[in-house]
């Protein structure tokens, strides 16, 4: 993968370097969207093992020939020995079964129907699989991470339900189906999201087995921080305030997406590492990996929004353009946005070089999947 010089876009600072290894970050410390502090999307260079070395397992997401050409995927990554499709199918099925069991139909019937409608509507299940993969990477078992994996998917679903509301993005289509408020009404949709948010924490607290209580508490605190007023909500509110403005730059755009999108992806990975028994050093390495793929996810999302159809995406295409929202393609152009995505993918995988390559294979493949996905 070719290296990208981001100097023409942004200047260097220490967005990813946190003092203290075990202390969860305060998201607002990364970037002041209204200030003039420079930002950096790269980590300091250091000597490290190369994941793509011939001494390591060769893995990649399942890419089409076209994607391999456009994305510049290294030849050694194309020759796969890790079955990513089988892995995602197996983990996705496990997550879907656990979600189905966790939110059952009961009284009041309507609210539980609304919760299940969006929660079980499909989706890529990237966040719960990231949680499980991180747990297993540091030596934990899937069962220890599954309640947290379900919890982050419940919260993600809540964010989608609320995001689609008329007062927010006003969208009619999600995961190829009518949005929750189109089926159940705005009032029930709001309450379904609220119920999923509350139940996510209850489920993690009561269903996690075989993990020391201190680690469960730490995980719950991490998750709450990632979605609160210094996490996902911060990104949402700055995004709302930026709509239609003509002077939004890269710094503010990155603030939005580090918080609105990357924070929950980061939380998913960090929760898995904590519950799996990871050391502080391992947790922080995985935190940096997750922040890169979180931003990568949004860059790719922005690209897909202007290059794919609604049918291909399973949601309304071009809605950011119609809403006059600032996006990476709008600021950088399509080609530079794709180069930026490649650089983020490389930086993410570099963070995994300290781990056993076979155990890290699922996370490396997930990073590639996020980089080269079609929807």
From TrEMBL:
Pathway the protein acts in: Isoprenoid biosynthesis
GO terms classed as biological process: isoprenoid biosynthetic process
Any one Gene Ontology cellular component term annotated for this protein: cytoplasm
Keyword Repeat part of the UniProt annotation: no
Keywords for this protein: Isoprene biosynthesis, Magnesium, Metal-binding, Transferase
Pfam families registered for this protein in UniProt: polyprenyl_synt
Assigned protein family: Belongs to the FPP/GGPP synthase family.
Entry protein name: Geranylgeranyl diphosphate synthase
Source organism per UniProt: Tetracentron sinense
């Amino acid at each position: 993968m070719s290296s990208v010089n981001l100097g023409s876009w942004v200047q260097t600072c220490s967005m990813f370097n946190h003092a203290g290894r075990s202390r969860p970050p305060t998201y607002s410390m990364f970037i002041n969207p209204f200030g003039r502090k420079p930002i950096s999307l790269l980590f300091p260079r250091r000597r490290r093992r190369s994941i793509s070395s011939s001494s390591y397992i060769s893995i990649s997401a399942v890419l089409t020939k076209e994607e391999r050409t456009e994305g510049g995927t290294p030849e050694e990554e194309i020759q796969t020995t890790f079955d990513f499709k089988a892995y995602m199918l197996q983990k996705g099925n496990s997550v879907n079964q656990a979600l189905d069991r966790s939110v059952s139909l009961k009284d009041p019937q309507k609210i539980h129907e609304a919760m299940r409608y969006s929660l079980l509507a499909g989706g890529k299940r990237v966040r719960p699989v990231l949680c499980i993969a991180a747990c297993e990477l540091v030596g934990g078992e899937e069962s220890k991470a599954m309640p947290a994996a379900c919890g982050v998917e419940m919260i993600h679903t809540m964010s989608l339900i609320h995001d689609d509301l008329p007062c927010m993005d006003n969208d009619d289509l999600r995961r190829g189906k009518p949005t929750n408020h189109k089926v159940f009404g705005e009032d029930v949709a709001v309450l379904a999201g609220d119920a999923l948010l509350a139940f996510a924490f209850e489920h993690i607290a009561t269903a996690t087995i075989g993990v020391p209580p201190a680690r469960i508490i730490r995980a719950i605190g991490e998750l709450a921080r990632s979605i609160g007023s210094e996490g996902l909500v911060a990104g949402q509110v700055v995004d709302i305030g930026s709509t239609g403005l003509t002077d939004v730059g890269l710094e503010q755009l990155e603030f939005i997406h580090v918080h609105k999108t990357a924070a929950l992806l980061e939380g998913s990975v960090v929760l898995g590492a904590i519950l799996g028994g990871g050391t502080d050093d391992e947790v922080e390495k995985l935190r940096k990996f997750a922040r890169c793929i979180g931003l990568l996810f949004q860059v790719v999302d922005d690209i897909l929004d202007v290059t794919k159809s609604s049918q291909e995406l399973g949601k309304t295409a071009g809605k950011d353009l119609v809403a006059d929202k600032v996006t990476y393609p709008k600021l950088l152009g399509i080609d530079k946005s794709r180069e930026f995505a490649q650089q983020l993918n490389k930086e993410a995988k570099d963070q995994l070089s300290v781990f056993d390559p076979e155990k890290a294979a699922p996370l490396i493949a997930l990073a590639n999947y996020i980089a080269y996905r079609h929807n």
